[in-house]
Amino acid sequence: MSKARLMQGNEAVAEGALAAGVLFYAGYPITPSTEIAEIMAERLPLIGGTFIQMEDEIGSMAAIIGASLTGLKTLTATSGPGFSLKQENLGYAIATEVPCVVVNVQRGGTSTGLPTSPAQADVMQARWGTHGDHPIIALTPSSVQECYELAVTAFNFAEEFRIPVILLMDEVIGHLREKVILPQELTIVDRKRPAVPPSECIPYENNASMIPAMANFGDGYRYHVTGLTHNEKGLPIGNPEVTKKFMERLNQKLNPYLERIQLVEEVQLDDAELIVVAYGCTARSALEAVRIARSLGLKVGLFRPITIWPFPQKQLETYSNRKYLVVEMNCGQLVGEIERIFGYKAVERLNRIDGELITPQEVLGRIREVLQNV
C-alpha cells in the first residue's frame, strides 16, 4: 500500500535515491542542497552503504565515479559554485560512460551569489558546462512529488544509458514542503552486465543498442578506463577513423531512446494562441497564471519540459505557428532553444534575476501584454 508523507524537496530526492538503490554518496556541504547530504549521512550506514564528506566538489565527483565502477549506484548533490568544480570530472564520467546522478539545487549567481535565494541560471551549464561535444540528461522537477519520482528516474536513466544524469532543481523546490505519495512498487533499472566471459568481453563495444554492457571492477573483467579518446577495448587511440566512430556513438547513443527520455507536461495547448514555456519552480507560477488566463477567456497553454536536456524539440514542434512566452529565473537561457526552433520574432520573454520567485501575477501580466500585440 502506498504511503503519504509530508516532505521537503531535498528530503524527497534523498528518499527517491534510496528507493532507487543508491549505496554511495560523496559530497561537500553547500547551501541550498545540504539536507540531501545530511540525510544520506544518517541513512546510508544503516543499509550497508557509504557516505563520504570529501575535501571539495572535485573529489566528490571523482569518488562517485570510482564507486560506480565497482557496481554501486552513486549520488552527489551541490549548488552552483560546486557544480562548476564538478565539470571536469563530469566530462570524464561522460567519456568513460560511468552512470551516476548529480543533483544541482540552483541558487542565485554569479560566483558565490545568493546562497539562500533561488535561480535557474545553471541551465546552459548543465548542457555545456564540461568541454567538448557530449550527451547529457538533465531533469527538472516542479513539485516535491517529482523530486522523489525524478530521483528514481534519474538513476534508471543513468543505469540504462551509462551516462551521468543531472537533477536540476532550484532553492524553492528544494526547500518546499508538500505531501508525497511513496509508491509500494517501483520500476528499478540496473545496468546491463556482460553476458560473455572476460576473455570475450569488449568493454566499449559499438553494438546495436549503442549502450555497451558494463562489468564491475573486481568481477574478473579487466578493462582500461580513460578520459582519452579510446577504442572499443578502452585503450587510447589517435586513429581518425576510430576517433570518429567513438565520438559518433557517444553523441548519438541517446537518439534511439528520446521518446522515453524526453518527458514533458502539456496543459491546454490544442487551441492556445500563446504557449507559456516554463520549468522548475517558475512552472508553478506559470500554471496558475494559465488557469487564471483561461478563466478570463484567454487562449493560453503551458508547455513544461520535465526533461530539459536533451531538449524535447519534437514535442514542442507539434504546437507550431503560435506565440511563445518563455518564463525563467535567469537572463534568458532556455529561451535560445525556443528561438532556434521557431525564430526570435515568435518568442517573448519574462525573466527575473533578483533572487525572488516569479509570481503568477507577473506571468499573467506578461500574457496580457503579448496577446494584445498578437
Outline of this structure?
This protein is an alpha/beta fold and 374 residues long.
Features:
single chain, Rossmann fold, seven-stranded mixed sheet, 14 helices
Biggest β-sheet: strands ordered side by side in the sheet: 3-2-4-5-7-6-12
CATH architectural arrangement of the largest domain: 3-Layer(aba) Sandwich
Q: What is the total domain count?
A: 2
Strand content: 15-25%
Rg result? 21 Å
Give the helix proportion (percent range): 25-40%
Structural class comes to alpha/beta
Kindly state the number of beta strands. 14
Mean pLDDT: 97
Q: How are the secondary structure elements laid out?
A:
Elements: E1 3-8, H1 9-20, E2 22-27, H2 34-43, E3 50-53, H3 57-69, E4 73-78, H4 80-85, H5 87-96, E5 100-106, H6 123-128, E6 137-139, H7 144-161, E7 164-170, H8 171-175, E8 177-182, H9 240-252, H10 258-261, E9 264-267, E10 274-277, H11 280-295, E11 300-305, E12 307-309, H12 313-317, E13 323-328, H13 335-342, E14 347-351, H14 360-372
Parallel strand pairs: 2-3, 2-4, 4-5, 5-7, 6-7, 10-11, 10-13, 13-14
Antiparallel strand pairs: 1-8, 6-12, 9-11
Helix pairs in contact: 1-2, 1-7, 3-5, 11-14
